[in-house]
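Hi support team,

I've been running sequence recovery on a batch of backbones for a student project. Most finish fine, but this one hangs at about 90% for roughly twenty minutes before it completes. I'm not sure whether the input is malformed or the queue is just slow. I've pasted the C-alpha coordinates below so you can try to reproduce it. Let me know if you need the job ID as well.

Thanks,
M.K.
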Protein backbone atom coordinates (compact mmCIF):
# COMPACT_ATOMS: atom_id res chain seq x y z
CA UNK A 1 0.00 0.00 0.00
CA UNK A 2 2.76 2.40 0.99
CA UNK A 3 4.69 1.58 -2.17
CA UNK A 4 1.57 2.18 -4.26
CA UNK A 5 1.03 5.48 -2.47
CA UNK A 6 4.60 6.54 -3.24
CA UNK A 7 4.31 5.50 -6.87
CA UNK A 8 1.01 7.36 -7.34
CA UNK A 9 2.33 10.96 -7.45
CA UNK A 10 5.31 9.94 -9.60
CA UNK A 11 3.05 8.25 -12.15
CA UNK A 12 0.72 11.24 -12.19
CA UNK A 13 3.67 13.58 -12.87
CA UNK A 14 4.88 11.36 -15.73
CA UNK A 15 1.37 11.21 -17.25
CA UNK A 16 1.01 15.00 -16.98
CA UNK A 17 4.37 15.51 -18.72
CA UNK A 18 3.37 13.15 -21.53
CA UNK A 19 0.03 14.95 -22.01
CA UNK A 20 1.63 18.39 -22.01
CA UNK A 21 4.54 17.45 -24.27
CA UNK A 22 7.28 19.83 -25.29
CA UNK A 23 5.97 23.35 -25.86
CA UNK A 24 6.54 25.28 -29.09
CA UNK A 25 8.38 27.92 -27.04
CA UNK A 26 10.86 25.32 -25.72
CA UNK A 27 11.43 23.95 -29.23
CA UNK A 28 12.07 27.45 -30.58
CA UNK A 29 14.45 28.29 -27.75
CA UNK A 30 16.32 25.04 -28.32
CA UNK A 31 16.57 25.73 -32.05
CA UNK A 32 17.68 29.36 -31.59
CA UNK A 33 20.39 28.26 -29.14
CA UNK A 34 22.25 26.34 -31.86
CA UNK A 35 21.82 28.89 -34.65
CA UNK A 36 24.85 31.10 -33.73
CA UNK A 37 27.23 28.23 -34.47
CA UNK A 38 25.80 28.04 -37.98
CA UNK A 39 25.89 31.83 -38.43
CA UNK A 40 29.58 31.94 -37.50
CA UNK A 41 30.40 28.80 -39.48
CA UNK A 42 28.71 30.17 -42.59
CA UNK A 43 30.52 33.51 -42.30
CA UNK A 44 33.87 31.73 -41.92
CA UNK A 45 33.16 29.33 -44.80
CA UNK A 46 32.36 32.11 -47.25
CA UNK A 47 34.74 34.87 -46.13
CA UNK A 48 37.66 33.57 -44.07
CA UNK A 49 39.73 32.50 -47.06
CA UNK A 50 39.36 35.82 -48.88
CA UNK A 51 40.05 37.65 -45.61
CA UNK A 52 43.31 35.76 -45.07
CA UNK A 53 44.44 36.39 -48.64
CA UNK A 54 43.29 39.97 -49.28
CA UNK A 55 43.19 41.60 -45.83
CA UNK A 56 45.76 39.64 -43.78
CA UNK A 57 48.02 39.22 -46.85
CA UNK A 58 49.19 35.69 -46.08
CA UNK A 59 50.12 33.31 -48.89
CA UNK A 60 47.57 30.89 -50.41
CA UNK A 61 49.56 27.91 -49.09
CA UNK A 62 49.49 29.26 -45.52
CA UNK A 63 45.80 30.13 -45.87
CA UNK A 64 44.96 26.56 -46.92
CA UNK A 65 47.11 25.30 -44.04
CA UNK A 66 45.14 27.41 -41.55
CA UNK A 67 41.80 26.18 -42.90
CA UNK A 68 42.77 22.50 -43.05
CA UNK A 69 44.43 22.28 -39.63
CA UNK A 70 41.55 24.25 -38.10
CA UNK A 71 38.99 21.81 -39.48
CA UNK A 72 41.09 18.84 -38.38
CA UNK A 73 41.33 20.23 -34.84
CA UNK A 74 37.54 20.47 -34.72
CA UNK A 75 37.18 16.84 -35.80
CA UNK A 76 39.74 15.60 -33.26
CA UNK A 77 38.00 17.53 -30.48
CA UNK A 78 34.74 15.58 -31.00
CA UNK A 79 35.76 12.32 -29.26
CA UNK A 80 37.72 14.29 -26.64
CA UNK A 81 34.62 16.36 -25.86
CA UNK A 82 32.53 13.19 -25.72
CA UNK A 83 35.01 11.65 -23.24
CA UNK A 84 34.91 14.56 -20.77
CA UNK A 85 31.18 15.25 -21.09
CA UNK A 86 30.36 11.57 -20.51
CA UNK A 87 32.12 11.85 -17.13
CA UNK A 88 30.21 14.97 -16.10
CA UNK A 89 27.91 14.87 -13.10
CA UNK A 90 24.40 16.22 -12.83
CA UNK A 91 24.13 19.81 -11.57
CA UNK A 92 21.22 22.09 -10.71
CA UNK A 93 21.08 23.30 -14.32
CA UNK A 94 21.73 19.89 -15.86
CA UNK A 95 24.68 17.84 -17.06
CA UNK A 96 25.09 19.33 -20.56
CA UNK A 97 24.05 22.95 -20.04
CA UNK A 98 27.15 23.91 -17.97
CA UNK A 99 29.41 22.96 -20.88
CA UNK A 100 27.52 25.19 -23.29
CA UNK A 101 27.42 28.10 -20.85
CA UNK A 102 31.13 27.80 -20.01
CA UNK A 103 32.50 27.62 -23.55
CA UNK A 104 30.34 30.37 -25.14
CA UNK A 105 32.28 33.43 -23.79
CA UNK A 106 35.59 31.90 -24.89
CA UNK A 107 34.07 31.07 -28.29
CA UNK A 108 33.08 34.73 -28.74
CA UNK A 109 36.58 35.94 -27.81
CA UNK A 110 38.34 33.45 -30.11
CA UNK A 111 35.94 34.28 -32.96
CA UNK A 112 36.66 38.01 -32.62
CA UNK A 113 40.44 37.55 -32.60
CA UNK A 114 40.12 35.23 -35.60
CA UNK A 115 39.06 38.33 -37.57
CA UNK A 116 41.46 40.75 -35.87
CA UNK A 117 44.38 42.08 -37.92
CA UNK A 118 47.47 42.07 -35.66
CA UNK A 119 49.99 44.91 -36.11
CA UNK A 120 52.84 42.48 -36.83
CA UNK A 121 53.31 40.66 -40.14
CA UNK A 122 55.75 37.78 -39.57
CA UNK A 123 53.62 35.92 -37.02
CA UNK A 124 50.22 36.27 -38.62
CA UNK A 125 50.02 32.68 -39.83
CA UNK A 126 50.57 31.43 -36.27
CA UNK A 127 48.04 34.00 -34.97
CA UNK A 128 45.22 32.92 -37.29
CA UNK A 129 46.07 29.22 -37.00
CA UNK A 130 45.94 29.44 -33.20
CA UNK A 131 42.64 31.27 -32.95
CA UNK A 132 40.96 29.29 -35.73
CA UNK A 133 41.93 26.01 -34.04
CA UNK A 134 40.68 27.32 -30.68
CA UNK A 135 37.43 28.47 -32.28
CA UNK A 136 36.86 25.10 -33.97
CA UNK A 137 37.58 23.24 -30.72
CA UNK A 138 35.23 25.46 -28.70
CA UNK A 139 32.40 25.18 -31.22
CA UNK A 140 32.77 21.41 -30.94
CA UNK A 141 32.60 21.63 -27.14
CA UNK A 142 29.32 23.47 -27.64
CA UNK A 143 27.91 21.34 -30.46
CA UNK A 144 28.40 17.92 -28.84
CA UNK A 145 26.36 18.62 -25.67
CA UNK A 146 23.88 20.73 -27.67
CA UNK A 147 23.19 17.83 -30.05
CA UNK A 148 22.96 15.33 -27.17
CA UNK A 149 20.52 17.65 -25.38
CA UNK A 150 17.80 16.33 -27.71
CA UNK A 151 17.69 13.16 -25.62
CA UNK A 152 16.98 15.15 -22.45
CA UNK A 153 14.25 17.46 -23.74
CA UNK A 154 11.49 14.87 -23.68
CA UNK A 155 10.90 11.12 -23.52
CA UNK A 156 8.34 11.35 -26.35
CA UNK A 157 9.79 10.44 -29.74
CA UNK A 158 7.45 12.82 -31.59
CA UNK A 159 8.54 15.72 -29.40
CA UNK A 160 12.20 14.97 -30.05
CA UNK A 161 11.64 14.65 -33.80
CA UNK A 162 9.74 17.94 -33.78
CA UNK A 163 12.51 19.67 -31.80
CA UNK A 164 15.04 18.30 -34.29
CA UNK A 165 13.00 19.72 -37.17
CA UNK A 166 12.92 23.15 -35.48
CA UNK A 167 16.65 22.91 -34.94
CA UNK A 168 17.43 21.97 -38.55
CA UNK A 169 15.25 24.78 -39.92
CA UNK A 170 16.94 27.30 -37.64
CA UNK A 171 20.43 26.00 -38.50
CA UNK A 172 19.83 26.34 -42.24
CA UNK A 173 18.34 29.79 -41.62
CA UNK A 174 21.44 30.61 -39.54
CA UNK A 175 23.64 29.58 -42.47
CA UNK A 176 21.71 31.96 -44.72
CA UNK A 177 21.81 34.78 -42.16
CA UNK A 178 25.55 34.31 -41.57
CA UNK A 179 26.43 34.57 -45.24
CA UNK A 180 24.09 37.52 -45.84
CA UNK A 181 25.02 39.45 -42.68
CA UNK A 182 28.77 39.06 -43.11
CA UNK A 183 28.47 39.90 -46.79
CA UNK A 184 26.55 43.11 -46.17
CA UNK A 185 28.91 44.35 -43.46
CA UNK A 186 32.19 43.61 -45.23
CA UNK A 187 31.04 44.53 -48.75
CA UNK A 188 32.54 48.02 -48.43
CA UNK A 189 35.96 46.48 -47.75
CA UNK A 190 35.99 44.90 -51.18
CA UNK A 191 34.46 47.96 -52.82
CA UNK A 192 37.35 49.97 -51.37
CA UNK A 193 39.66 47.38 -52.86
CA UNK A 194 38.51 48.30 -56.33
CA UNK A 195 38.68 52.03 -55.60
CA UNK A 196 42.33 51.92 -54.51
CA UNK A 197 43.63 50.08 -57.54
CA UNK A 198 44.49 53.35 -59.33
CA UNK A 199 45.44 56.03 -56.80
CA UNK A 200 46.38 59.54 -57.88
CA UNK A 201 49.80 59.74 -59.51
CA UNK A 202 50.70 63.28 -58.44
CA UNK A 203 50.83 62.50 -54.74
CA UNK A 204 53.89 62.59 -52.53
CA UNK A 205 52.28 60.82 -49.58
CA UNK A 206 54.31 57.70 -48.69
CA UNK A 207 51.15 55.91 -47.63
CA UNK A 208 49.48 56.52 -50.96
CA UNK A 209 52.60 55.57 -52.86
CA UNK A 210 52.52 52.20 -51.12
CA UNK A 211 49.04 51.72 -52.53
CA UNK A 212 50.61 51.56 -55.97
CA UNK A 213 52.02 48.15 -55.07
CA UNK A 214 49.27 46.94 -52.76
CA UNK A 215 45.59 46.60 -53.53
CA UNK A 216 44.77 47.49 -49.90
CA UNK A 217 46.01 49.97 -47.29
CA UNK A 218 49.09 48.97 -45.32
CA UNK A 219 48.32 45.40 -44.07
CA UNK A 220 50.07 45.98 -40.75
CA UNK A 221 47.57 48.72 -39.88
CA UNK A 222 44.76 47.15 -37.79
CA UNK A 223 42.79 50.42 -37.98
CA UNK A 224 42.37 50.37 -41.76
CA UNK A 225 38.82 50.46 -43.09
CA UNK A 226 38.99 46.87 -44.36
CA UNK A 227 40.16 45.56 -40.98
CA UNK A 228 37.54 47.59 -39.11
CA UNK A 229 34.54 46.27 -41.03
CA UNK A 230 35.64 42.66 -40.52
CA UNK A 231 36.05 43.27 -36.78
CA UNK A 232 32.63 44.95 -36.75
CA UNK A 233 31.09 41.86 -38.36
CA UNK A 234 32.86 39.64 -35.81
CA UNK A 235 31.44 41.77 -32.99
CA UNK A 236 27.90 41.49 -34.36
CA UNK A 237 28.12 37.71 -34.69
CA UNK A 238 29.67 37.52 -31.22
CA UNK A 239 26.58 39.34 -29.92
CA UNK A 240 24.39 36.76 -31.68
CA UNK A 241 26.31 34.03 -29.80
CA UNK A 242 25.55 35.65 -26.44
CA UNK A 243 21.89 36.19 -27.32
CA UNK A 244 21.56 32.56 -28.45
CA UNK A 245 22.99 31.07 -25.24
CA UNK A 246 20.79 33.33 -23.08
CA UNK A 247 17.66 32.19 -24.95
CA UNK A 248 18.77 28.55 -24.72
CA UNK A 249 19.45 28.79 -20.97
CA UNK A 250 16.21 30.59 -20.12
CA UNK A 251 13.91 28.70 -22.49
CA UNK A 252 15.10 25.08 -22.26
CA UNK A 253 15.02 22.83 -19.23
CA UNK A 254 17.33 19.84 -19.34
CA UNK A 255 15.71 16.77 -17.82
CA UNK A 256 17.65 14.03 -16.09
CA UNK A 257 17.66 10.60 -17.71
CA UNK A 258 14.18 9.24 -16.82
CA UNK A 259 15.26 5.67 -17.46
CA UNK A 260 18.42 5.71 -15.35
CA UNK A 261 18.30 4.41 -11.81
CA UNK A 262 20.33 5.77 -8.90
CA UNK A 263 22.22 2.49 -8.82
CA UNK A 264 23.18 2.72 -12.52
CA UNK A 265 26.84 3.39 -13.22
CA UNK A 266 28.26 5.72 -15.87
CA UNK A 267 29.70 3.74 -18.74
CA UNK A 268 33.50 4.18 -19.21
CA UNK A 269 34.26 6.10 -22.39
CA UNK A 270 36.50 3.50 -24.06
CA UNK A 271 34.12 0.68 -23.23
CA UNK A 272 31.16 2.79 -24.35
CA UNK A 273 32.91 3.62 -27.63
CA UNK A 274 33.57 -0.08 -28.21
CA UNK A 275 29.92 -0.96 -27.52
CA UNK A 276 28.81 1.89 -29.77
CA UNK A 277 30.92 0.62 -32.68
CA UNK A 278 29.43 -2.85 -32.21
CA UNK A 279 25.83 -1.66 -32.00
CA UNK A 280 24.23 -2.78 -35.29
CA UNK A 281 21.64 0.02 -35.79
CA UNK A 282 24.27 2.70 -35.08
CA UNK A 283 26.79 1.17 -37.50
CA UNK A 284 24.16 1.00 -40.26
CA UNK A 285 22.96 4.56 -39.62
CA UNK A 286 26.48 5.97 -39.53
CA UNK A 287 27.69 4.08 -42.61
CA UNK A 288 24.71 5.11 -44.74
CA UNK A 289 24.66 8.76 -43.73
CA UNK A 290 28.44 9.11 -43.93
CA UNK A 291 28.18 8.34 -47.64
CA UNK A 292 25.02 10.42 -48.09
CA UNK A 293 26.32 13.49 -46.25
CA UNK A 294 29.64 13.32 -48.12
CA UNK A 295 27.80 13.15 -51.45
CA UNK A 296 25.56 16.08 -50.50
CA UNK A 297 28.54 18.21 -49.41
CA UNK A 298 30.36 17.37 -52.64
CA UNK A 299 27.31 18.48 -54.61
CA UNK A 300 27.10 21.69 -52.56
CA UNK A 301 30.77 22.57 -52.95
CA UNK A 302 30.97 21.76 -56.68
CA UNK A 303 27.60 23.17 -57.74
CA UNK A 304 28.71 26.82 -57.64
CA UNK A 305 32.07 25.91 -59.19
CA UNK A 306 30.33 24.10 -62.04
CA UNK A 307 27.86 26.92 -62.63
CA UNK A 308 30.66 29.51 -62.65
CA UNK A 309 33.26 27.82 -64.86
CA UNK A 310 31.52 25.05 -66.81
CA UNK A 311 27.95 26.24 -67.34
CA UNK A 312 28.74 29.96 -67.83
CA UNK A 313 26.33 30.98 -65.04
CA UNK A 314 28.81 33.06 -63.03
CA UNK A 315 26.37 35.97 -62.73
CA UNK A 316 23.77 33.73 -61.11
CA UNK A 317 25.82 31.80 -58.56
CA UNK A 318 25.02 34.01 -55.52
CA UNK A 319 21.30 33.76 -56.30
CA UNK A 320 21.61 30.01 -56.80
CA UNK A 321 23.17 29.68 -53.32
CA UNK A 322 20.31 31.69 -51.81
CA UNK A 323 17.79 29.50 -53.69
CA UNK A 324 19.36 26.35 -52.22
CA UNK A 325 19.32 27.70 -48.65
CA UNK A 326 15.79 29.15 -48.83
CA UNK A 327 14.47 25.92 -50.36
CA UNK A 328 16.11 23.94 -47.55
CA UNK A 329 14.62 26.19 -44.83
CA UNK A 330 11.11 26.09 -46.28
CA UNK A 331 11.10 22.32 -46.89
CA UNK A 332 12.09 21.25 -43.35
CA UNK A 333 8.44 21.38 -42.07
CA UNK A 334 7.38 19.38 -45.15
CA UNK A 335 9.91 16.64 -44.41
CA UNK A 336 8.90 16.61 -40.75
CA UNK A 337 5.25 15.95 -41.70
CA UNK A 338 6.33 13.44 -44.35
CA UNK A 339 8.41 11.30 -41.98
CA UNK A 340 5.63 11.35 -39.38
CA UNK A 341 3.12 10.12 -41.94
CA UNK A 342 5.17 7.72 -44.07
CA UNK A 343 8.13 6.89 -41.85
CA UNK A 344 11.77 7.90 -41.80
CA UNK A 345 12.98 5.27 -44.25
CA UNK A 346 10.56 6.51 -46.92
CA UNK A 347 11.66 10.10 -46.31
CA UNK A 348 15.26 9.04 -47.01
CA UNK A 349 14.30 8.59 -50.67
CA UNK A 350 14.00 12.38 -50.97
CA UNK A 351 17.77 12.73 -50.60
CA UNK A 352 18.24 11.20 -54.06
CA UNK A 353 15.94 13.69 -55.81
CA UNK A 354 18.86 15.94 -56.77
CA UNK A 355 20.68 13.23 -58.75
CA UNK A 356 18.66 13.15 -62.02
CA UNK A 357 18.28 16.94 -62.16
CA UNK A 358 21.99 17.55 -61.49
CA UNK A 359 22.84 15.09 -64.27
CA UNK A 360 20.42 16.92 -66.56
CA UNK A 361 22.14 20.26 -65.81
CA UNK A 362 25.47 18.79 -66.92
CA UNK A 363 24.04 17.97 -70.34
CA UNK A 364 21.79 21.05 -70.66
CA UNK A 365 23.45 24.05 -68.95
CA UNK A 366 20.54 26.47 -68.76
CA UNK A 367 19.79 29.24 -66.19
CA UNK A 368 16.18 28.16 -65.64
CA UNK A 369 17.21 24.54 -65.19
CA UNK A 370 20.01 25.66 -62.83
CA UNK A 371 17.51 27.41 -60.54
CA UNK A 372 15.28 24.33 -60.60
CA UNK A 373 18.25 22.13 -59.71
CA UNK A 374 19.10 24.55 -56.87
CA UNK A 375 15.53 24.30 -55.57
CA UNK A 376 15.49 20.48 -55.69
CA UNK A 377 18.98 20.39 -54.13
CA UNK A 378 17.62 22.43 -51.23
CA UNK A 379 14.88 19.82 -50.72
CA UNK A 380 17.44 17.00 -50.71
CA UNK A 381 19.81 18.89 -48.39
CA UNK A 382 16.99 19.51 -45.90
CA UNK A 383 16.16 15.78 -45.87
CA UNK A 384 19.84 14.84 -45.44
CA UNK A 385 20.14 17.24 -42.48
CA UNK A 386 16.90 16.28 -40.74
CA UNK A 387 16.89 12.49 -41.04
CA UNK A 388 20.14 11.44 -39.32
CA UNK A 389 19.55 13.73 -36.34
CA UNK A 390 15.98 12.48 -35.96
CA UNK A 391 17.01 8.81 -36.28
CA UNK A 392 20.01 9.02 -33.94
CA UNK A 393 17.84 9.40 -30.78
CA UNK A 394 15.96 6.23 -31.83
CA UNK A 395 19.28 4.39 -32.08
CA UNK A 396 20.29 5.65 -28.63
CA UNK A 397 16.96 4.45 -27.23
CA UNK A 398 17.57 1.02 -28.76
CA UNK A 399 21.03 0.88 -27.18
CA UNK A 400 19.53 1.86 -23.82
CA UNK A 401 17.05 -1.03 -24.00
CA UNK A 402 19.89 -3.47 -24.65
CA UNK A 403 22.06 -1.93 -21.88
CA UNK A 404 19.51 -0.91 -19.24
CA UNK A 405 21.92 -0.41 -16.33
CA UNK A 406 24.31 2.01 -18.01
CA UNK A 407 24.10 5.77 -18.36
CA UNK A 408 26.12 8.63 -19.84
CA UNK A 409 26.42 7.03 -23.28
CA UNK A 410 24.49 9.72 -25.19
CA UNK A 411 27.45 12.03 -25.76
CA UNK A 412 29.54 9.07 -26.99
CA UNK A 413 27.01 8.43 -29.77
CA UNK A 414 26.75 12.08 -30.77
CA UNK A 415 30.46 12.93 -30.60
CA UNK A 416 31.54 9.86 -32.57
CA UNK A 417 28.88 10.49 -35.22
CA UNK A 418 30.01 14.11 -35.68
CA UNK A 419 33.65 12.99 -35.81
CA UNK A 420 33.05 10.43 -38.56
CA UNK A 421 30.88 12.90 -40.51
CA UNK A 422 33.55 15.61 -40.42
CA UNK A 423 36.36 13.25 -41.36
CA UNK A 424 34.49 11.67 -44.27
CA UNK A 425 33.44 15.07 -45.60
CA UNK A 426 37.00 16.37 -45.30
CA UNK A 427 38.44 13.37 -47.14
CA UNK A 428 35.74 13.56 -49.83
CA UNK A 429 36.23 17.28 -50.42
CA UNK A 430 40.01 16.81 -50.50
CA UNK A 431 39.76 14.08 -53.15
CA UNK A 432 37.30 16.21 -55.11
CA UNK A 433 39.63 19.20 -55.06
CA UNK A 434 42.58 17.01 -56.10
CA UNK A 435 40.58 15.68 -59.06
CA UNK A 436 40.11 19.25 -60.31
CA UNK A 437 43.88 19.79 -60.65
Amino acid sequence: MAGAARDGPERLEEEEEKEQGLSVCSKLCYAIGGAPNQVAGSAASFFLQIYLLDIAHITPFHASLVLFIGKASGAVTDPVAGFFISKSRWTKIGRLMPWMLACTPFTVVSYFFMWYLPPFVSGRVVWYLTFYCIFQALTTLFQVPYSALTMFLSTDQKDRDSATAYRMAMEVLGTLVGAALQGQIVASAHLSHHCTLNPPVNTTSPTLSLNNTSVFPEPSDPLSHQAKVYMMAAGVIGGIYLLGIIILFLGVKEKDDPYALSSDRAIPFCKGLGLTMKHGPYVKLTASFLLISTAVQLEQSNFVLFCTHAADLRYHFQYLVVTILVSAVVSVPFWQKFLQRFGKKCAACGISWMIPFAAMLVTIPNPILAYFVAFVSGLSIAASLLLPWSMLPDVVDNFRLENPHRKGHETIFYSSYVFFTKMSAGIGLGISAACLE
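--
Follow-up from support: It reproduced on our side and the slowdown came from queue contention, not your input. Strands lie at 265-266, 406-407. No action needed from you.
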